[in-house]
Design a protein that fits this description.
This protein is an alpha+beta fold. It has helices at 26-31, 53-61, 118-123, 140-147; strands spanning 2-5, 11-14, 18-19, 43-46, 66-70, 77-82, 99-102, 106-109.
Length: 153
Amino acid sequence: MKIKCRKCRGFLMEYTCIINAHGGSLQDDLQEENACTDNNSQVWFVNYDIAPDWIHSAIDEGNWKMGKLNCSSCNGRIGSFNFVQQQKCSCESFVVPPVWLQKSKVDVGFKPKIAESKRSTQLETLTVINDVNQSETISPEIEANLFNFEITS
């Protein structure tokens, strides 16, 4: 899964960079019955050890203190980092990771799985209506790419 900027839909990072408030993977939350309530907050915590280069650059520019994370495509603010003030999560057992993204500023993109449906089988029977101008007809190869079909000869 990919994390994208909600404003410009630019790619930010892979979902594997996201961790919970205790620094563990998000899968740990699903397995733990007593998951910390901070894991359902308004931010996605980022594992800065495996974060993309643009996050490392922003942290370096902030001298590993505090600063804002901006989208590398549109420069919109999407998160922050703070290595100076360490905050504890709501269970007060752990210090939350210092790098985070605002959930309201990013989208988690899933690869859509298109199920076989009546509509998808009907798409194969569609034909292109030729216009009066013959130069605007669509070749079978282009039509196949438009509808993502395979051409069988």
